[in-house]
Amino acid sequence: MQPNFIPSRFKSIFVKLTAITVLITALVSGVLTVMHWRANAELISGLVRERAGSETTALANEVAGGIRFGRGDKVQELFDGLVEHSKNTLQSTVAIGSDGTPMSDEAAPAAADADLLDLARKALASNQVVVSDDGFVVAAPSHFGEAGELVGAIAT
Fold first, then answer.
1. Across-strand partners of 154?
2. Virtual CA dihedral for 118, 123, 125, 126, nearest 10 degrees?
3. Is residue 120 within 8 Å of 108, Cβ to Cβ?
4. pLDDT of residue 81
5. Quick count: other Cβ atoms within 10 Å of Cβ 41?
6. Where are the alpha helices (DSSP H) in the chain?
7. CA-to-CA distance for 154 and 143, rounded, in angstroms?
8. Rg from Cα positions in the chain
9. Backbone dihedral angles phi then psi of residue 144, each to the nearest 5 degrees
10. CA dihedral of residues 37, 47, 81, 149 (deg, nearest 10)
């Protein structure tokens, strides 16, 4: 009497090669997905940094009159409009006068605002755009009038 022998399908060369092909395809797809995601994240970060620089510089010129004449309420109104327009991607803003004092009624700035103040003071002292190490925080000097008088600085 012969024993009933049923060959296993998992011992087939075809099944083994198919399994290896599926695993390699999944691995390659995963690596390509991660690489694509990283490239997109880097591209978007670069665009945000670039936009932060250009918009901060433009905003510095727009609020120059308010800074020059000590109208903190008008400066804050422009800042609030920008925060609303940015759909809360802009987290904080600060403006300082030519003497380096903040144009805000708040007595004690938050920790994030203290960093913004430091960066704004550097922009005021150097009369140039100053960017944080990560590139997401930008400070720009604010010039007023035809003569381009330095009246203060802002940081976003």
1. 95, 140
2. 140
3. no
4. 81
5. 10
6. 13-62, 64-68, 72-85, 111-126
7. 11
8. 29
9. -125, 140
10. 160
Distance of alpha carbon 38 from alpha carbon 32, whole angstroms: 10
Length of the chain, in residues: 156
Q: Which residue ranges of the chain lie beneath pLDDT 70?
A: 1-10, 88, 104-112
Bin 12: left if φ > 0, else alpha if -120 < ψ < 50, else beta: beta
Q: How do residues 98-137 score in pLDDT, each as one tens digit?
A: 888 888 655 445 555 788 899 999 999 999 999 988 888 8
> Cα–Cα distance between 103 and 76 in angstroms, integer?
8
* Distance, CA of 18 to CA of 145 (rounded, Å): 74
Assign residue 124 a region (left: φ > 0; alpha: ψ between -120 and 50; beta: otherwise): alpha
- Give residue 77's pLDDT: 85
